[in-house]
């Protein structure tokens, strides 16, 4: 019998939102659902996964997996997938999964696709997925060939979460750690200062561009982002100018994003920036130039001085979100 | 030691995409082809390794239609690479087949310690070939690398992970490194460099010659679509305070996103 295997990501003992989205999509197929979780606390997810309709949990509950290591993770994941042979593997298109699954796919000689925005899984385990090409300038359907297992990485915030109708009591299989001599060693972690979700996972993004005048002007973007619990992003122009690090760049040569709400402040909208964010559900553009291309992609537009409008917005959202 | 760099030719980021009439793909007529921006960082880093005496030579590989791809290989030669190899292939080769072709070509060149690639190509954004190549070569991998130090048989890479957090990874060679923006500032080709590159022979390989066929393709893209037209933008009027109040109301009541 064919089945769907979901790569379950969690933090502080709770399944991530992206994983709940994947489980909702898996349930729609009517296929048996397996879940694979790695790291300390993996076993403890069985109850939550059961409530989400998972039939079988593979738990590699080992502290060695608390820190990502491509070689070790690829070995553990390939081991489970090769033994289980699921028709479909679903994971969120996070930086970890995008690093990991191509290696797993090469190891298993199967296909992988990432950053998908649409997904349907048939009762026979066929996949119909669509993904952006050229950072969203167009989209294409993905067709797997000679791939008994199809690995699909879904962009977060694209699939809707539906409640599971029947809870299950999944069996829990312990995954043993491979005895592998690793070439890779992670020596040091330098935590980002923001503590926010990555741009690729964020539900709300507030981005700033040249219209902020200088690096100090970016503060109004950060203030607004903080009030909204949003992640701050940036245009290429101000990354190249050195105002903010490249990790914050949205666009074809930065990150392709698709949050529910994208607020562009002082960004005129170069083609490569628009390509990277036009998949956002609702776009707000604030710019002093009424002819800026960004307004062609925007849902709501405000023409004016960002230094007057943005602080007013920050105050307004503070009031709104207090209720 | 030789350093190998894998590069891809892609449409320039300013390209406006047009689809073929049957939606089977993108119409490349009139497209300006350039080196994938992330691959420029990979080429630059390899040349710097050579200049620092940490590599004897730099060989650049590219997979794709040879008539156009050789132009991008010449750009890499003009920047300072020593040798170039083109693996002639149709333009819709997927990451799985591409990584196999590159692994075949690299193994044929003999011993290697480091292979550099871009972290992703800006056309299909698959971000897969670097990791697949590492697996095919039995090598360590580090993607999204913004700082790299190599010493005898060892590489230390700083790579970006979620949310701006960075990891410092140490790898024993062989290793495949995926370059990110910030790794260096790619140089422009000098005029003498361009003249010299024009005269250099580019080695030509076939897919068959590196043991790859259409049966190695795992993913194809079809039924292309342009994004749906957005409804016209709603412009907000009034002073800053009024606009802010109106926007907050619309986002909560109309768009229902807050």
What would you say this structure looks like, in words?
The complex is a heterodimer of chains A (about 325) and B (about 260). In chain A, helix 3 packs across helix 4 (about 95-110) and helix 5 (about 220-230) runs parallel beside helix 9 (about 305-320). Helices cover about 30% and strands about 30% of the residues of chain A. Chain A is built from 9 helices and 18 strands. Chain A is α/β, with parallel strands linked by helices. In chain A, strand 8 and strand 9 (about 125-135) form a beta hairpin. In chain A, strands 7-11-6-1-4-5-12 form a 7-stranded parallel sheet, sandwiched between helices. Chain A has 2 domains: about 5-175, Rossmann fold; about 205-320, TPP-binding domain (Rossmann fold, 3-Layer(aba) Sandwich), CATH 3.40.50. By secondary structure, chain B is of the alpha/beta class. Chain B folds into 2 domains: about 1-215, HUPs (Rossmann fold); about 230-260, no CATH class. Chain B has helices spanning about 35-50, 65-80, 95-110, 130-135, 190-200, 240-255, and strands at about 1-5, 10, 35, 55-65, 85-90, 115-120, 140-150, 155-160, 165-170, 175-180, 205, 220-225, 235. In chain B, the strands form 2 sheets. Chain B has a 9-stranded mixed sheet, with helices on both faces. In chain B, strands 2-3 form a two-stranded antiparallel sheet. The longest helix of chain B has 15 residues, at about 35-50. The radius of gyration of chain B is 22 Å and the shape is globular. Chain B starts with a strand and ends with a helix. The model of chain B has no long low-confidence stretch (mean pLDDT about 95). At the A-B interface, helix 3, helix 4, strand 7, strand 9 and strand 10 of A face helix 3, helix 4, strand 7, strand 8 and strand 9 of B.
Summarize the structure.
The complex is a heterodimer of chains A (323) and B (258). Chain A is an alpha/beta fold and 323 residues long.
